[in-house]
TrEMBL record:
Transmembrane segments: none annotated. This is sn-1-specific diacylglycerol lipase ABHD11. Coiled coil: none annotated. Keywords: Hydrolase. Belongs to the AB hydrolase superfamily. Residues 56-143 form the AB hydrolase-1 domain. It comes from the Eukaryota. It holds the Pfam family Abhydrolase_1. Its EC number is 3.1.1.116. It catalyses: 1,2-didecanoylglycerol + H2O = decanoylglycerol + decanoate + H(+); a 1,3-diacyl-sn-glycerol + H2O = a 1-acyl-sn-glycerol + a fatty acid + H(+); a 1,2-diacyl-sn-glycerol + H2O = a 2-acylglycerol + a fatty acid + H(+); 1-octadecanoyl-2-(4Z,7Z,10Z,13Z,16Z,19Z-docosahexaenoyl)-sn-glycerol + H2O = 2-(4Z,7Z,10Z,13Z,16Z,19Z-docosahexaenoyl)-glycerol + octadecanoate + H(+).
Length: 148
């Protein structure tokens, strides 16, 4: 369902008494705003390169049109040079991961959090590009303690 939001436009030269204009644009609200619906995580596709379990793993999250294979070269090099475990992940609706109608950052963050817990990779170092960066930031903000 589309809702309407007010968008303010500013002129290039600066603010004056009549320099602001507003218009209404449609937007689709995040599914997190729905009450009574339970968020379900999907089982993400991933590749885990082995390393020392005592050191936090490096976790790479790709951008909007990417997949876990975008990080193959850097993941292999980092695993060899640092001795850490390196995890590359396909986000929901990307690569080999399942598809879901919910594509919110909240859902993607929950998917990653569930995967990290399942693999025993907490604490870890999150590295994200574009969409993956936003997912990593949301995941870090949702944690009350800093294990991620």
């Amino acid at each position: 369902m589309l809702r309407w939001a007010r968008v303010w436009r500013l002129p290039l030269r600066g603010l004056g008494p009549s320099s602001l204009s507003a218009s209404r644009v449609p937007f689709a609200p995040s599914s997190s705003g729905r009450s009574g619906t339970e968020r379900r995580s999907v089982l993400l596709s991933y590749k885990l390169l082995d390393g020392e379990a005592a050191r936090p793993a490096l976790v790479f999250l790709h951008g909007l049109f990417g997949s876990k294979t975008n990080f193959n070269s850097i993941a292999k090099a980092l695993a060899q040079q640092t001795g850490r475990r390196v995890l590359t992940v396909d986000a929901r609706n990307h690569g080999d991961s399942p598809h879901s109608p919910d594509m919110s950052y909240e859902a993607m963050s929950q998917d990653v959090q569930d995967l990290l817990t399942q693999l025993g990779l907490v604490p870890c170092v999150l590295v994200g590009h574009s969409m993956g960066g936003r997912t990593a930031m949301l995941l870090a903000l949702q944690r009350s303690q800093p294990p991620f």
